[in-house]
Amino acid sequence: MECSTFSKYSWLDFLFTVIGVCTFLFDVGSDLWVAKEFFLHGDFFWFGVLVGFMVLSSVVVQMFSWFWFKYDRKLESYEAQTTSENVILGGEKYFKLYCWLHVLQLGFFFRHVSAIKQGFQVWWRRKQGSEYAVYMTHDLSMLRLIESFCESVPQLTLMLYIMFHTNRAHTVQYVSAVASTSSVAWMVVDYHRSLRSFLPDKARQGWGSSAVYFLWNLLLIAPRVVAVALFASVLPAYVALHFLLLWAALVLWARLQRTEFMDSAGGEWLYRAIVGLIWYFSWFNVTEGNSRVRGVIYHGFMAADVAILLVTWWLYRDPVQTRPYAGGLLAAVPLGYVAGLLLKGLYYTRFHPTLQNPTNRAAEDVPDGQAAFSPEAAVSLQRRNKRMAGHAQHFYAPEPPRAAVHNAGRNQSSSTF
Q: pTM for the complete prediction?
């Protein structure tokens, strides 16, 4: 293991990890509170739907965590980095127990606790292990992304649907909506920051640039969620069909792009299924190639779909009950989406960190970043965390030099922490 290939673990990394745990616990607590309120009020259907979201999300996240745990056991230096001093229940002697923790839906939580322990030792006590602390934070960032789009975004859509359908809202629903929105917002910032750490110019990522990045993502996701909730409020029997048809098409699109995020065929299909779910609400690039064209196709399709959902809601709505907010939503949803697209364009033309470094602007097709990857950088990234490194390479540099891609691929089988 070469320590020089890793970024140092800082107090900000530790802060993000702690806040991530707090956000996770707050989100779970609010979910349980909402479920309890539904149950006590006799709304057993909504209780079942909400619990279903929670269980499905937890199972998916645990599956990803377990897949990665199995992959990592094959890497060099795994035993040295995962001793009991570094990781809670670390080492091969706790393998069966760690397996049961995932079965009991506690594997994700113990990843958070282990990351806090390792991060505290590295940052506060100045112990060795910065490499593995950084490695764990990258995996947690991706897991939080998956958890947010599997639970927080669908739950937010459900809460809005109930409000629109019943034309009333309880305090607990407002709390749940705020918790879900906060979880998604923090995920966007945390995930963006984690991917940025794989780029040579990450030090130039300022708070202003991050704020604009956060805003355009929020403005693109929020109108989509509201449009789906409005459609569901008038045609609830068709929203599941709408989701399944689009999700199946998006999963097929991910398959056609030949994603290579996981180390097994089963894991890769699970990843593509989650990509389809995320694409239902938001866009991100997952493979190299002409992503600008793919992004234009995606946003054009989603804009048309949002328009269809809004028109359908307007035609089938109750004019009397929806009078106080119908006109405002009809104008705000498309305007919000357009504003998000404009902010996205503004980000890449004015606020992107790479604009400050002309030497990194080698690729002209830059949908989500402009960093160029050299063969040496690709090898270094693979040593750090090949899952997130590969995703960052696709996300920020969709057309890297051909030599870098081949070199990175050759080194996947010998990656270390």
A: 0.78
